[in-house]
Write a structure and sequence with these properties.
Radius of gyration: 26 Å
Number of strands: 27
Helix content: 25-40%
Bound molecules: beta-D-glucopyranose
Number of helices: 22
Distance between the termini: 46 Å
Shape: globular
Structural class: alpha/beta
Length: 765
């Protein structure tokens, strides 16, 4: 048998094997139910009437995002007394929530506590960088600490549950919600998912400042066609499992207490009614035991999708799929009873859903002390405390990416005469991004405010939404009288976010004219980008020697950018999503297969490229410069152990050859070809943000196991073969290449993570 046929036979055999082990009873250790909780939950369910059960399965809006608690009126309190609501979202505040909880536990028949939820996405009162920015830190530890701050603040304000992290992979920057996730790569996305979950929940949800996390939006919300929000995802099983699902598997491994189903449909089946995805894959195959909530109104929207003919059918469909809690549509509350009357087989599913909801409450310790979270006195001390601001500052600084620095324009001389141009430089509202919880723009320090004490002239020029160009002349004057121009351009916070997809991700408004006018002054320019998505700026940035990507960095935005501009901090952020040259190039991602005719710079050759633009992105995934220089050397690839314990250590020495201390983000990519298949040219399988003092060196070691190279073909398969390993400073700046030989052929064990979901052990010595 030749090798290709052998492999094909193996694929077929192992597909069978995978099918037979498809429904393992996985005892997920994290989030496993305790016996005591189980007894309590069972007792309660035995006493509950059907309306009370449907009540637990109902989450209502207690207010609006911008008017929290505004819907908690007398009628709402009556409903709580009747036990006809299990959870509220868009509520907050230690005192109001304690009052509301008192009604539930003291005045309802069974005294079941309510679960209070909010989208605490990148901070509660102290606002951190938006998630895409945080991912650019390539530093899961700062992401964990930022989530910890958010949880401490939210819990002291009486909240139990956050709808975060959003862990949707996104390869199309037209999608407005790329701002909420960790970008294009499933490995980075998985590590950021775990870090945030750990930060929100700690290692025990019963801790008084732990917040129940919610991995969302399961399963391929980020694959929406054309980057349009809510639109269909039509993707292969392989892409689903290798690209979109790994962060969700990582979230389970990290103990995520809840999941949210996505609005959109996957290959024709709306996720909120998708039994194959939720009940079969998530519950039965992955053994997930936590609570599953729908997205806002999504159960009722099964009718608009055309998947259900009316709300009764929609309720049945969602319940059958495995959705425990209905966020705001009240379809379970109003229509499930009718569905149950028609189909008794649904009844046990109701008890199962209620049980998961009550277990979540039990794990949070709410049955022991329903008031333990909120604390009005501590709330005054904790929200926005100096310690929390310090974490926000660190997170903001670590998220900044230096994209270009020709002629070492940066860092700036401290006595430089500076023209600060662009309305975004003083847009406090945009610093806190979308999903701002109880963040206050007045508590943000803008770049303009941070530079106030320096020798600057500020000229707003134009704002990203304004077609008015009348202030451009004043901006040109300011530039003419300066040594250097800081040109702040991009999008405002409301250009990205939910339902903010854009067909053109170039520079909005009249900013292009501003850029041209300033460029014409021939002063050196530092472009400072602010945005919630990678923008397509090839032409805009043409001839501009220095470019900083600063996202929306939160309350400490200005000081963090100033620290980088003046060299107090050396930038070490990396792009979590490549920046295209123009909108027509998206979707694009570094981990693409090579094609039979790989993109060729020679236009006379027919190849997989556009004729009217250069090949590839303007700045690739993983790209980011430093004020220091690093040398990569001494790659070693050493097999360890054998048989089932076979692994490889892949090490390299990174030397800081410059005169300044700085961080370097060392990245490990693999290329694992498989006979008969077109596999990605590179896949990230490890990274380390290493602090390396000037003149010093660090040995960075990654440990890879066969599961890291597994591919999805009707199940995770490990195939034998030679794997290229690449260590570098970005997905395109590979410094060292080596090889390892994997003799293994087997299916991945049930319950094991594989591919990008699997953690790579990294040491820096
Ligand atoms: C969003 C979710 C969010 C929910 C509650 C929905 O529109 O898609 O991400 O958690 O609203 O605010």
């Amino acid at each position: 048998m030749n090798a290709a046929i052998k492999r094909r036979t193996f694929l077929a055999a192992s597909a069978l094997l995978a099918a037979s082990t498809r429904f393992p009873a996985l005892a997920a250790s994290k989030g496993a139910v305790s016996q005591e909780h189980d007894r309590r939950v069972r007792d309660l369910i035995a006493q509950m009437s059907l309306p009370e059960k449907l009540g637990q399965m109902t989450q209502l809006a207690g207010g609006r995002q911008k008017a929290l608690n505004s819907r908690i009126d007398d009628a709402a309190l009556d409903r709580v007394r009747q036990g006809r609501v299990g959870s509220y979202l868009h509520v907050a505040g230690a005192e109001p929530l304690a009052r509301l909880q008192r009604v539930a536990v003291e005045e309802s028949r069974l005294g079941i506590p309510l679960l209070f939820a909010m989208d605490v996405v990148h901070g509660y009162r102290t606002i951190m960088p938006v998630p895409l920015g945080m991912a650019a830190s390539f530093d899961p530890d700062i992401a964990r600490r930022a989530a910890r701050v958010a949880a401490v603040e939210a819990s002291v304000s009486g909240l139990h549950w956050t709808f975060a992290p959003m862990i949707d992979i996104a390869r199309d920057a037209r999608w407005g919600r790329v701002v909420e996730g960790a970008g294009e790569d499933p490995y980075l996305g998985s590590r950021m998912a775990e870090a945030q979950i750990l930060g929100f929940q700690t290692d025990d949800l019963a801790n008084p400042d732990a917040l129940l996390a919610c991995a969302k939006h399961f399963g391929a919300y980020g694959a929406g066609e054309g980057g349009r929000d809510y639109d269909r995802a039509d993707i292969s099983d392989e892409t689903l499992h290798e690209v979109y699902l790994p962060p969700f598997q990582a979230a389970i491994a990290a103990g995520a207490g809840s999941f949210m189903t996505a609005f959109n449909e996957l290959n024709g089946v709306p996720t909120t009614g998708n039994a194959e995805l939720v009940r079969s894959l998530l519950r039965e195959q992955w053994g997930y035991q936590g609570l599953v909530v729908s997205d806002w109104n999504a159960i009722l929207e099964l009718v608009a999708h055309g998947a259900a003919s009316d709300p009764v059918e929609a309720a049945a469909l969602a319940l059958r799929a495995g959705v425990d809690m209905d966020m705001t549509s009240e379809t379970y509350a109003n229509h499930l009873e009718q569905a149950l009357a028609a189909d008794k087989t649904l009844l046990p599913l109701v008890d199962e859903a209620v049980s998961r909801i009550l277990h979540a409450k039990a794990r949070l310790g709410l049955f022991d002390d329903p008031f333990r979270f909120g604390d009005a006195e501590r709330e005054k001390l904790v929200l926005g405390s100096p310690e929390h601001r310090a974490v926000a500052r660190e997170a903001a600084t670590r998220s900044i990416v230096l994209l270009r620095n020709e002629g070492n324009v940066l860092p700036l001389r401290s006595d430089a005469r500076i023209a600060l141009i662009g309305a975004l430089a003083d847009d406090a509202s945009s610093t806190i991004g979308s999903w701002r919880a109880r963040g206050q723009m007045e508590e943000s320090i803008t770049l303009r405010a941070a530079l106030e004490a320096r020798n600057i002239t500020y000229a707003p020029g134009v704002s990203p939404r304004d077609p008015d160009t009348s202030n451009i002349a004043a901006a040109v004057d300011a530039a003419d009288n300066a040594d250097i121009v800081l040109l702040v351009i991009g999008e405002d916070f409301d250009h990205s976010g939910e339902a903010r997809s854009r067909s053109d991700i170039g520079l909005p408004g009249a900013q292009q004219q501003l850029v041209e006018a300033i460029r014409a002054t021939e002063k050196p320019i530092v472009a400072i980008l602010m945005n919630g998505r990678p923008l397509a700026l090839e032409e805009v940035l043409d001839g501009i020697p220095a470019v900083l990507e600063t996202w929306f960095l939160g309350n400490e935005s200005g000081p963090a950018i100033a620290d980088v501009l003046f060299g107090k901090a050396s930038p070490a952020g990396r792009l979590p999503m490549g920046m295209p040259r123009n909108t027509g190039q998206v979707p694009q991602y570094y981990a693409h297969p090579p094609t039979g005719r790989p993109a060729n710079p020679d236009l006379s050759k027919d190849s997989a490229r556009y004729h009217d633009t250069e090949i590839g992105p303007l700045f690739p995934f993983g790209h980011g410069l430093s004020y220091a220089q690093f040398d990569y050397s001494d790659l070693s690839v050493v097999p360890q152990g054998n048989g089932r314990s076979l692994a490889w250590t892949i090490s390299a020495t990174i030397t800081n050859t410059s005169a300044r201390d700085a961080d370097e983000v060392v990245q490990l990519y693999i290329r694992a070809p498989v006979a008969g298949l077109a596999r990605p040219v590179k896949e990230l399988r490890g990274f380390a943000r290493a602090a390396i003092p000037s003149g010093d060196a660090r040995r960075v070691t990654f440990t890879l196991e066969p599961e890291h190279f597994a591919i999805w073909r009707d199940g995770w398969q490990i195939l034998p073969g030679s794997v290229e390993v690449m260590i570098g400073a970005s997905s395109e700046d590979i410094r060292l290449r080596g090889r390892l030989d994997n003799p293994e052929a087997r299916a991945v064990d049930a319950g094991e993570t594989a591919g990008a979901a699997r953690v790579t052990t990294v040491t820096v010595a």
